Amino acid sequence: MFSPGETLKMVANNPLYRGTMESRVVAVNRTSMIVTMPSRDGKPVFLPVGTIVRVQRGDAALEPPFQAEVLAREFKPVALLTITLPQAISRGGRSEPGGRGTRVIAVTSGKGGVGKTTLAINLAIALSRLQLRICLIDVDLGTANVDFLLRLNASYNLSHLLKGEKELKDIIVEGPEGLRIIPGAVGLADLANLSDWQYTRLIHAFNQLEQECDLLILDTGAGIAANVTNFLVAADTVLVVTTPDPHAILDAYALIKTLCSLKQNPNIKLIINRVESYEEENQVKRNLLNSCRSFLQQPIEYLGWVTESAHVTRSIRDITPFVISYPRSEAALCVAAIARKLAAVKPEAEREKEKGLRRFIDDLFGLLKKSALP
Ligand SMILES: Nc1ncnc2c1ncn2[C@@H]1O[C@H](COP(=O)(O)OP(=O)(O)OP(=O)(O)O)[C@@H](O)[C@H]1O
Ligand SMILES: [Mg+2]
């Protein structure tokens, strides 16, 4: 068996590509593995699809080599080959390039403590009930607490994947009602400092995720610092949560303004949480939507509200999402209505043109690199 990080020696069965080349394992699948583009004397050799190569472990001169076939190659953001594993030379092993195009939805707010994490979790469950495959990832680098609120005892996180110790399937945790969670985005915080090899592993993991997930929901931190806005700019859709508190509304406006300055025509939707009356909800909605339209020339879609509710408080004390413990409560019905609105959107309408998680990671990587510059 091969493991990520192992070095390989390769000789191509093609007189055009002579000599012994070196490569490194990026990820191992059932019948194939992804390796870095082989190089000879430090220069990459772009082996074409269909080439047969003899492969040997870099440090196992006594082990017999095996024959592999190049199944696919890609160049961006780093050059990679997919090759067959021993006994797996077959045309059937090829996977379809690209996935169904997962939509990335970031849940955020200007002011902290307005209910983002609570809403992200309950909304994710409500969306799962609509037969969507949902994955929730905690990208709040300050106070990551999705783990705690769902009583998950996650042993691994993205940093284990990036170190090559675990694969995506080992770090994803099953939550309630089919919801899947990628715990603690410790690894994503360092995205700007990843080696090519680690970055490639991340891309590979998100490519796998793309096959299994319709919506990726990001629970972000609050505010306009780059470690939050980078995720918002890279996401397809941003859900801004506010409460009727004037400070929260002002901060929500400041966040939307910042987002508009960072990205042309961002797809922003508003949720008002902890609403006590219809009049209150109506006033907050009108003020915020009008200000965005008049001063920012940015139309914002209103997604809905969630009532101030003792059920929510109680469910947090019981560490059980309120859509599960109190499914008939007003708050749960509000969340179900928001989920229906979100689910009704045709994916093509909101997904960035270059679809899916690959674009999301590429954008995020570029933004993090830029904001890491002195
Ligand atoms: N609809 C609601 N009714 C009553 N209480 C609520 C409601 N929504 C949220 N809360 C309360 O607000 C508190 C903060 O919620 P939560 O942790 O989800 O906010 P957050 O925006 O994720 O905070 P942070 O900015 O720290 O990440 C929770 O403890 C919860 O009790
Ligand atoms: Mg939170």
Question: What is the correct CATH architecture of the largest domain?
Answer: 3-Layer(aba) Sandwich
Shape: elongated
CATH C-level label of the largest domain: Alpha Beta
Q: Low-confidence parts, pLDDT < 50 over ≥5 residues?
A: 88-99
Structural class: alpha/beta
Task: Briefly note the CATH topology name of the largest domain.
Answer: Rossmann fold
How far apart the termini lie comes to 43 Å
Number of strands: 16
Strand order of the largest sheet: 11-12-10-13-9-14-15-16
Number of domains: 2
Give the SSE string: EEEEEEEEEHEHHHEEHHEHEHEHEHHHHH
- At the fourth level of CATH, the homologous superfamily of the largest domain is P-loop containing nucleotide triphosphate hydrolases
Tell me the fraction of residues in β-strands, as a range: 15-25%
Distinct small molecules bound, one entry per kind: adenosine-5'-triphosphate, magnesium ion
Q: How would you characterize the largest beta sheet? A: 8 strands, mixed
What is the typical, i.e. mean, pLDDT?
Answer: 85
Helix content: 25-40%
Task: Figure out the total of helices.
Answer: 14
Which radius of gyration do the C-alpha atoms yield? Answer: 23 Å
